[in-house]
Amino acid sequence: MSRFMFSTGIENSSPTIENGRKRIDEMAACRHYDFWRDDFALVQDDLKVRTLRYGVPLYKTFLGPDRFDWDFSDLAFGNLRTRSIIPIADLCHFGVPDFIGNFQNPDFPQLFGSYARAFAERFPWIQLYTPVNEMYVCATNSAAYGWWNEQLRTDKGFVTALKHIVKANILAMHEILKVRPDAIFVQSEYSGYNHAESPKAIAPAEFLNEQRFLSLDLNYGKRVNSQMYRFLRDNGMTEEEYDFFMSEHLKSHCIMGNDYYEQNEHNVDESGRTASSGEIFGYNEITRQYYERYRLPVMHTETNTCEGPKGTEAIWWLRKEWANVLRVRNSGMPIVGFTWYSLTDQVDWDIALREDRGHVNPLGLYDLDRNPRPVGKAYKQLIEDWRDVLPAQSVCLTVPLADAAPFSAPAGDSSKQERSETR
User: Which domain holds residue 72?
Assistant: First the structure.
């Protein structure tokens, strides 16, 4: 079967702050652990969305080498399957288990690869994966901005985090393919642009505009330019490590997920300092830049904006992003899906999870009481209007998805009772 993937997601970020002393768990903050059945019912019965970006925080399931707690994963993914909701399995979203520490740990890639293999063996019916979410953002916020996890502010810390994160992503893909040879990897990643404020800012803006590609360059085996190669080598990447990325990539199994928010574009001054510029180019133009670099099918994997005082600001943004998706399609770029992220409101993303304030951000299709927001109603109508129109008019708007094999629960699978209850 094939389909255009209208999608949403359930926010599962889990970084640590306060030098590792405190864990931020968005699923807890958004009460998903209490309302997960209701959340899945909204996806299936109200929105009528068939694909869902979803994963349980890594720290909850990966307890140590060869030690896993699958209890909640069995319940949640088992329920998704009974509902015929196709998960895009999100395995690592901004945080690692305490026993790993943070992204500076050189053991992380191998350990994460082993986890991905165990996950794929546990849920062999899952075909779509995002092994590591937003690799560039994760490395930047953890090791360049000093906000999460290792909380470093150095180029060396950034390069170390980035090479470990991307290697972990690649090793996970290799391990998943051993279990599910037809797996497809939707690499949800930041897409942005840096605008020079003045002629003196051109050089730092050009540097940042090459640096923004680093995670995907390494992930897809795209040779970086001489300036970026020197940057990587000067900050701890060895020749052997660089050669790994050039030779072990799995680009042919990938869909390039482009996440775009109004804050993704920046003004750059002559010292290299950046500040949000708001939308200048927009999703269509920035996606064109990424597509011309990698020549991969595209999915709009994240966007949102606050509801706003008028109550219509999010609807306006939804329509704007959808118009950009159609423009990408009409320009001949193969776009296969669109995502409003996330299903419900989020908590503390207005400060990028740097503190635990408990401030609700009205970004979701539903509020935290699971009542629809105006943008939720608008998205539902958009899906109804366009679901059967796009495939007939597109250059490449569908993704082949193998029919799920008959379910066979692992021994001791705690999701058996849940599946029985939900039939």
Answer: 2-422
